[in-house]
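seq:
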Amino acid sequence: MTAPGTRTGAIAEDSDDLAVEEALALVRQPKDDSETPVSSPAAPGERHRATPWPQARETAARAVRSAGRRAPVSVSLADALGLVLAAPLDALTDLPSFDTSAMDGWAVAGPGPWEVRDEGVLAGHAQPEPLTDGEAVRIATGARIPADTTAVLRTEHGRSDAQGRLHATREVSHGQDIRPRGQECRNGEQLLPVGTLVTPAVLGLAAAAGYDTVTVVPRPRAEVLVLGDELLTEGLPHDGLIRDALGPMLPPWLRAMGAEVTAVRRLGDDAKALHKALTASDADLVLTTGGTAAGPVDHVHPTLERIGAELLVDGVKVRPGHPMLLARINEDQHLVGLPGNPLAAVSGLITLAEPLLRTLAARPAPEPYTLPLTETVQGHPYDTRLVPVVLRGDRAVPLHYNGPAMLRGIAAADALAVVPPGGAPQGKEAELLDLPWAAAGIGVCFT
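struct:
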């Protein structure tokens, strides 16, 4: 897929063709410095002021920090995965709420041997009759402990004699294999603080503590506007038309980053339709695809100017994805303009959309980490490069087919390597950005 604003030249087919990509990635010159508060001086050959890549990511995160705290919502446990707690998770009861057996076996009272009752004690049943010294009763894991029980004798540690009396085959200590009431927590005790990410284990703890719902920071809402008259939604490319790769790719990618995708709209190269869509949207984040350069059908910049949006980032010193942008439509709504080339759009997602969505969702930033590269990676003279890699043991293997219009490399990748200007030699430690599904599986949104 090609950005609508890049139809006048060839597409860089690989990282070697950086000069071509530069020529295609030009963004219009801002009118004055006030339009680019986070920009940096242009490198030789550039016609606009682009923002350094690390600064662009911080700008995206900071853009929504100043907004008022989003109102917490109460959601069912089934809908809470990947969200962040907006209220502490306090124990609603003692855990366990009664003395329970930790093992299958016998509840015994006093020293053995023991006479065994005929009836047993099962989990989920009412309080059993108390035991007397020298008495035992069959008991299941999780069942309530009869009053006056000394210990639980595991099934494999007991034997019966000819008279049916129970004997222990090893020493029995007082309280053995009994989970006393409140062993894990007491009623009212804080289990997890505000800001905790809801993982499957958190859901289990909340359920065990008696919760049906939890109070969380709401999921950010995102809307995708697919631009370009040349895009097909099905079938093979033909007659100058190409398949839309971003329409199918962006919504699940955004969900994996924690967003609720409210709509995907295909607008073509229509300035009026873009204006109408932007002014009607109620999403927290609007993403556009293509149209971020200065060609005759690149309507993103003029439309943002028309609606009075504040341009926060206008071009980023990163390859691919140089002509991405970030704008504040109003206090509670932002727009990320993605380049139309597929891998360049991925770069825009990672650079601008991910920090913004993460901050809106109150999720912590992932801990940075590095691995050595297995081979030399060519760099851009002035810009950061994001290169798909696979992880093999303690090393990162750069993937080919990493040109701005290519998805073949990223489709096989575990992460993106951050390659500084000038490149990175073999063995150099490179910062890695995990793809949201690489460690936890497709559809998981809390990585």
